[in-house]
Design goal:
By secondary structure, the chain is mostly beta strands. Helices cover 0% and strands 52% of the residues.
């Protein structure tokens, strides 16, 4: 059973960088051909795919967030991380990490999500 767990600060000030880590257990983030995504859901809105990192370390970003987003990984810890720069209150959301096969948006495993609020 693969498990994903998001961690990071729940409160970030405007203009700062939001950093979240997804710790994966029960499976390796380098296993062919899984992609590991970050998704968010602002209050009252739908889910938004932010980006992903593949089993080989290739990264993909949503065009609307690409200029502010960076995804990286630490294979020794079986973790991947999200950095979102220059946050505003509109980045307030529940952030999830998830696993999918290729770039499919049908995820077979997902973390429980973590609330991040951007506020001064």
């Amino acid at each position: 059973q693969v498990q994903l767990q998001e961690s990071g600060p729940g409160l970030v000030k405007p203009s700062q960088t939001l950093s979240l880590t997804c710790t994966v257990s029960g499976g390796s983030i380098t296993t062919n051909y899984y992609y590991w995504s970050w998704i968010r859901q602002p209050p009252g809105k739908g889910r938004e795919w932010m980006g992903a990192i593949s089993y080989s370390g290739t990264t993909y970003y949503s065009p609307s967030l690409k200029s502010r987003t960076s995804i990286s990984r630490d294979t020794s810890k079986n973790q991947f991380t999200l950095q979102l720069n220059s946050v505003t209150p509109e980045d307030t959301a529940v952030y999830y990490c998830a696993r999918g096969l290729g770039m499919s948006t049908s995820y077979d495993y997902r973390g429980q999500g973590t609330q991040v609020t951007v506020s001064s």
